[in-house]
Design a protein that fits this description.
Helix Hairpins, alpha+beta, 13 strands, five-stranded mixed β-sheet, 52% helix, five-stranded antiparallel β-sheet, 4 domains
């Protein structure tokens, strides 16, 4: 685009100076007349500047008057007009996109809430309005002032949104909600809330069913086990029945262990997490587990070693922690050849208290590691059955650790053994008197 506005204004300046010079020569006051000519030129431009400002203000008020400027002011006005038109087109396009997104999110059954970096509500969809009874006056208010559930407030302020939060609705009795928060932009938050009532009830039904069946099976199994013991102790038992009785006792014991594990797992899933814990001396507890193991392994002659920070204590439920570590130790025993060392190392790091159970056994293919803690999942079903495993041990370990805010990490390679490490948070650490002093 050919721009001649500046040349146009320079020509006008030259004209003012020329006329002022002629008048100055005629009046013999050249300097005064030249200065007056330049002054008049500036006044003329200030007048144009004032008119230009008024025109710009009208543009801001969304009016679009046609300008009648000339020279450089016309070119600037044309530029502003083009920018204004482009801005309006972009604004309309963005408004269309936003409206489209709002229509899409309004069609969702999940509640969607948009928050700024301070946690104030900027927008919500129809599902959120119905779920939480939001009103227009709630815009700009903090979400935690409107959803005043203690667990949600702690979850929101903690800042760790890697896992969703499941809580009971404070608006509707019997409703179960699942909150998931996603960060974007400069600290802004997108809150997605799902109605998980149906899934929660189905899960509760499953737990109740497993618990009831396990308890119902315990009584007849106890009766059968009692009669089998009586028959086994009978000196007049025919010789052909001895092997059958022994096998029935073995399978009955396996079923009893399975039922006990199911009951334990159901209890861990359904019981409320305890808030008052006892001090658990890890090294002493592990030594006790080793003593129990030595009494049960017979001629396998494994070596057991406790290493690391043997004075460390944590806050927790000793029975549950013992169950978790005992499962890991007996897994290490069962999947290791004779006379192999099983080591438990206790280590305090800057982030956790780690209890690592390491063996030099057959190891596990890495493809199985993500599913190890699933109920009844077996890496080698034939070998596990032969060893009397129920497939629930690691599931119990996982739930015990969840109840203690801990996590399980596994490292293993076929033929090179396995290491199962329980990471307890430092908040569970019991500080020693020397350290506290």
């Amino acid at each position: 685009m050919d721009r001649k506005g500046l040349a146009y204004e320079l020509r006008w300046l030259a004209l003012f100076v020329f006329i002022g010079g002629i008048i100055g020569l005629a009046l013999e006051a050249l300097r005064v007349c030249l200065g007056l000519a330049v002054f008049l030129f500036l006044i003329w431009h200030f007048y144009k500047l004032k008119k230009f400002e008024e025109w710009v203000i009208s543009i801001r008020r969304m009016k679009k008057p046609v300008h009648n400027f000339d020279g450089i002011w016309a070119e600037i006005a044309d530029d502003i007009t083009r920018l204004s038109n482009r801005y309006q087109k972009d604004k309309l396009r963005l408004q269309a996109v936003v409206s489209r997104v709002q229509e899409m999110t309004s069609a969702l059954t999940d509640a969607v809430i948009l928050l700024d970096s301070q946690g104030n509500i900027e927008w919500w969809n129809t599902a959120a309005q119905m779920m939480f009874d939001f009103r227009n006056i709630d815009l700009g208010h903090k979400l935690i002032n409107l959803i005043r559930h203690p667990r949600f407030i702690h979850y929101f302020e903690d800042g760790d949104y890697s896992e969703p939060l499941d809580i009971d609705s404070i608006k509707k009795n019997g409703q179960r909600l699942q909150f998931q928060i996603h960060l974007f932009g400069h600290g802004d938050k997108l809150v997605i809330v799902r109605d998980a009532t149906r899934v929660y009830k189905l899960e509760q039904m499953r737990r109740d069913f497993v618990a009831n069946v396990s308890h119902e099976l315990r009584t007849p199994l106890t009766v059968l086990h009692g009669y089998l013991e009586t028959m086994a102790d009978n000196p007049d038992l025919p010789k052909g029945f001895e092997k059958a009785i022994v096998q029935m006792q073995s399978q009955g014991e396996r079923m009893r262990i399975l039922i006990e594990d199911l009951i334990t797992l159901t209890k861990l899933e359904t019981d409320e997490r305890e808030t008052h814990f006892e001090e658990v001396h890890l090294a002493s507890m592990i030594t006790t587990i080793f003593n129990d193991a030595r009494a049960l392994i017979g001629d396998r002659e494994h070596e057991f070693t406790v290493k690391g920070d043997t004075e460390v204590k944590i806050k927790g439920n000793e029975k549950e922690v013992r169950s978790a570590i005992s499962n890991l130790v007996f897994n290490a025993i069962n999947y290791s050849p004779k006379k192999i060392e099983v080591t438990v190392k206790i280590k305090k790091t800057h982030t956790s208290v780690a209890v690592a159970v390491r063996d030099k056994g057959i190891g596990i293919d890495p493809k199985h590691l993500p599913r190890l803690t699933e109920r009844f999942y077996r890496v080698d079903s034939g070998r596990t059955t032969a060893l009397g495993g129920t497939g629930l041990g690691l599931a119990i370990v996982k739930h015990v650790l969840l109840r203690h805010d801990a996590e399980l990490k596994v490292r293993s390679m076929p033929g090179k053994g396995s290491t199962f490490t329980c990471h307890f948070p430092l908040s569970r650490l019991v500080e020693s008197e020397e350290h506290a002093a």
